[in-house]
Amino acid sequence: MEKAALTSETLKMVKLFQKNEITEYHVYSALAQRVSGKNGEVLKKIAEDENRHYHKWKTYSQVDVRPRKFAVFFYRFISRVLGITFAIKMMEKGEEKAEENYAKIQPQIPEAEEIWKDEKQNELMLVDMIDEERIKYISSMVLGLNDALVELTGALAGFTLAFRNGRLIGLAGLITGIAATLSMAASEYLSQKSEEEHKDPVKAAFYTGMTYIFAVILLVFPFFAFPNYYFALVLTLIIAIFIILIFSRFVAVVKDISFRKFFWEMVFISMGVALISFIIGWVARILLNVQG
């Protein structure tokens, strides 16, 4: 049966859908080649589905469409840095507005709703099947990062008024941070040993410790790099907010939670503790009559 002629607007949307499908086909194919086992098979299956959807849309447009090369490169890069799950969910979130466009073309292409449901249901089911280690241990990463940001921003703020020496503040913060890293990693190890979860205690401790020490290095760096300790403190707080921004985005995407809520909770807690510690340092300096 010959398909009815499409309006220019509908044809434009169909080509857009084609471009999305062929782009995602190349992304999933590239990711499937990079990993083996169950994850590789799942990614290959998603790639096949994207290719099938592309050819279904092609029956309406009657033309071939090229993929977005930059998007393919971008998601491949993101998958290496932040993981496959993050890259895929980020890519799929970028298509949330597509449902409205599918509804617009449905009067001319009744099959559009069926294609949309098939695509979303299959992809969500398959994406949930991906087993990625860093996602399994994300709670350990959150624990390490949150604790580092709260404890160290507070400690550095207190040290700033108590010591009034950039290198001394940085050194005190570094020692505090290293000690806290070892303490947090050990606590996470013992915690996982006592719980009946399917997590390796050593890996949980590793992710907690690595996340913590990463935050420590970034937060103390300004005190070694800049002689003005007040400027260094401000820069440290800015770095802390930037770390929270990046990490909140990561957690929000992979865990499908509210980015704004998670971000502002971490900001208020970290900055609130820093402010209280700064005041404590100021009061302690006056009461103890510390000169410097």
Nutshell version of this structure?
The chain is mainly α and 292 residues long. It has two domains: 8-131; 134-287, no CATH class. 83% of the residues lie in helices and 0% in strands.
Derived from helix and strand composition plus strand pairing, the structural class reads mainly alpha
Strand content: under 5%
Number of strands: 0
- Helix % is over 70%
Which sheet architecture does the biggest sheet show?
A: none
Question: How many helical stretches?
Answer: 12
Please state the CA-atom Rg, rounded to the nearest Å. 25 Å
Keywords:
12 helices, mainly alpha, 2 domains, single chain, elongated, 292 residues
Molecular structure report:
The chain has 292 residues and is mainly α. 83% of the residues lie in helices and 0% in strands. It contains twelve helices and no strands. It has helices at 8-34, 37-61, 69-82, 84-93, 98-105, 111-129, 133-136, 138-163, 166-194, 201-225, 229-255, 259-287.
Task: Give the topology, please.
Blueprint: H1 8-34, H2 37-61, H3 69-82, H4 84-93, H5 98-105, H6 111-129, H7 133-136, H8 138-163, H9 166-194, H10 201-225, H11 229-255, H12 259-287
Helix pairs in contact: 1-2, 1-3, 2-6, 3-4, 8-9, 8-10, 8-11, 8-12, 9-10, 10-11, 11-12
